[in-house]
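Entry type: protein chain
Record version: 2
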Amino acid sequence: MKKNIALIVPTFPTGGGVPAVGKFLYHAIKEDENYNQEIISLSGHFKDSNNVRVTSPATWLRGIQITEDVHDGYSYTHYGSFFPEFPGQAFKPRKSLTHHLNQFDLIQIVAGSPAWAYLAKHVTVPTVLQVATLVKVERERKIKSRSGLRKLYQKYATEKITKLEKQGMKYVDHTFVENSWMYEYLQKEVGSDKVSFAPPGVDTQLYKPAVGGISEAPYILSVGRFSDPRKNTRMLFEAYKKLLDSNPDVPKLVLAGKSGPSAEDMEYARQVNISDHVEIKLDVSLDKLIKLYQGAELFLLSSDEEGFGMVIMEAMACGVPVIATDCGGPSTLITSGRDGYLVPVGSSESLAKRTNQLLIDNKKRQQFSESAREKILNQFSDEITGKKFLDIYNQLITK
């Protein structure tokens, strides 16, 4: 008889790295004849209509809502939370959710922060966590950018969630991590026998170089949620401005993602006269996104912090050389100088310099393209990476 796995993916329909990893694990589990899987999404925003909100008395007696929905062809169950206006509430157990989870043979939580593991406090079946970063690291830039009461509140909320992270890690039987610094941290926190270095993978038959190439005008690509301060879109624009100043014929910059740059960043682009050279594509379909990867000369990532960088892996699988800031996760994927470049966080000058070097050196760009594709095939295909997760599931379920 097949065993049943609950795949918990907070804010599943919103896009981004966590849902992308959730989809990878969904397919890895689906390919194994021993398991069935079910996606459970959790509220991550206080305005979620499934929540019980302090500011909405009508929801107090109604209780949290549990709804069924479909996103990108994936069916999922979505749970609201209680009083999400207060820091940390989204991570707390819900009686209805705990009851639901205890019907499964194993729980797999996919999360940015270990705080999401706190919801497993009363779960009685084996529970594993896939995690990318810590909330202190994730929010560092946002806190620095704030002032006054907003800064004090952000600090308070971060400290509260940090406590939940430490408590939550006690409730999981095994943790998967996707970058080296987090792996070292968790080995010290929970012991090396309870942690596995297991980056997610990518479908190399779907994400692959175009046959015969793309005939469109050349462009440089970046993919992400550009309204997120961690993506440091301003630095990307600063680097592109330097490129244009040195070479007016540099390819246009294409940004593709769920959200575009902030109004302040777009105003900066206008002020430095690069807005006519920047094209923004929002909510593109998967087919169009893959074609964007396939047609790009280069892929740029300007983030201040990344737990891993799914978009880097997708670009490399399509044979696109990547230049990324050395912000945590990218070093798991890129060997600088061999299949891409890592540059210092926040350095628009270094990003512009490396970009220009690859634009003018066709031979090196081709070498990087081939090396990037080869690395993903050999180390990060979904078949190879998925096996690590399935092996641990089997160990825990058969104990």
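Comment: The domain at 219-379 is CATH 3.40.50.2000 (Rossmann fold).
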